[in-house]
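Field reference: sequence -> structure
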Amino acid sequence: MLSRTHTVNPKASFPPVSVAPMMERTDRHFRYLARIISPHTLLYTEMLTPRAIIHGDRDYLLGFHESEHPLSLQLGGDNPQEMDQAIKLAQPYGYDEINLNIGCPSERVQTGNFGACLMANPQHVARLVEAMRGATEKEVTVKHRIGINGRDSYDELCEFVETVAAAGCQRFNVHARIAILGGLSPKENRSVPPLSYETVYQLKRDYPQLDIEINGGIREVDQVLEHLRHVDAVMLGRAAYEHPYLLAEVEQAVFGNPHAPTRREVVERMIEYIDAWKDTPVSSHTIVRHMLGLFAFRPGTRRWKQRISELLPRSADPSDAVRTALMAVPAAVLDERPSVPELAAAEGE
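Structure field:
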């Protein structure tokens, strides 16, 4: 078993910022957009079940553009044998790591006996991690809550982490809320249980040899920088989807990259991407919907969304529709670059 110590952890070898796996959001088209904006952020797939991979259309479920690296495949399930089989089937696609979902609180997921409900059974999660590690040489990580109702003490969180770490998990993506199973919807579980960032900070202080990533309610780059004073990495959720250009601020502030693209440059590259999918069964809406938040909090964002909604359904050429909608956005907004605090602020310099 691990012990709670206070030694210093060596510098992590994975990106210090990631975009969380989100159902119906982080598909390959959103990830392509995110990668244009931020070359360095770690990206995740939507959660997939092993059975979907075993029995479904694997090219559709697992295919991705090579530019999406580094990319983590997130799985949700409770059967070690199915995990083993699914990971071996996913191996040829070349994901950079595999992540186990022990954080989703939805009733559908609970019915399948996976997600957050498995926090009640750390030994079984450890068996899943062992099976997953036996199927791949890639790193296996675990995303979880700080607890669930009925099992929400810090000691129980430590028991979970120690047990899973003993099975070979080095990195933990920790949502800083408990999950209330029964009575709250997944949406409510993202806001009703109070955030406890200090609990995640304490976890890092007590287990400095582990890589701890914090998640939950993080919406601004200043918050990212502050969290990086206490933990190894920060996972952005819906803020990165609703405001994808936030990743340009992250790219400059965290990764020290002064060459983040302008929004105009992002749209131009996405138009090329839309054209590349033109003669496929993929609808243009499937791609363009991820671009709606690109001008969030800037002049022209409402008109941009209106014009996309008006033009795209009736346009024979979706690229032309996007170009026309772009005319609703002021040139100053299209061509501005992020201006954010330097990485040194996060390092206490």
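Note: DSSP finds 16 helices and eight strands in the chain.
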